[in-house]
Description:
Layout: H1 11-16, H2 25-33, E1 40-41, E2 45-49, H3 50-60, H4 70-86, E3 87-89, H5 99-107, H6 112-128, E4 132-134, E5 141-147, E6 154-155, E7 173-177, H7 178-197, E8 201-203, H8 208-215, E9 216-221
Parallel strand pairs: 5-7
Antiparallel strand pairs: 1-2, 2-9, 3-8, 4-5, 6-7
Helix pairs in contact: 2-8, 3-4, 4-5, 4-7, 5-6
Amino acid sequence: xxxxxxxxxxxxxxxxxxxxxxxxxxxxxxxxxxxxxxxxxxxxxxxxxxxxxxxxxxxxxxxxxxxxxxxxxxxxxxxxxxxxxxxxxxxxxxxxxxxxxxxxxxxxxxxxxxxxxxxxxxxxxxxxxxxxxxxxxxxxxxxxxxxxxxxxxxxxxxxxxxxxxxxxxxxxxxxxxxxxxxxxxxxxxxxxxxxxxxxxxxxxxxxxxxxxxxxxxxxxxxxxx
Length: 225
């Protein structure tokens, strides 16, 4: 019986017939990508995906003025980095070494130049918390600001910034819409699930134990009668 061919109503009985040590990497990938499930119950334990907590954090961060700027960015980049490091599309291979770039090239139609800008933002943010960073591909400095209701993940500047600070910088700003970025994350994960279902998703980890300890958690043990 193949997990890919099962109907959702059969998932519970399928996994209840298995213990954690019996699961293959492919079965663990299924649990990892089913982040909407609070947990997956097995014979011996209840297991949850780290993506569940990351997605919940991303969604909840918009509800608090103290977290609605930096937390969505850091969480979105963590998810993209994880997906790009872990998965690839067998039908759309790419040679990107950066996890964020690989995830977006593999599982979206996001423009490559905009991908470079997002990676640039990530580097500045994680290096010193700055919204200004240098694009290593073009050698240009990029100044970022967050916006709402733009309808686009990224809006490029009207004028490429030359690194000179002026009294008015509006035309030189690259704008990031965090809600659109959140939607992009969901798009990436939905595409991964579709690729898995079609047998086209490749995982960089071959050891089930390594996959489990990196990306899954035991919630509780199932009581034995």
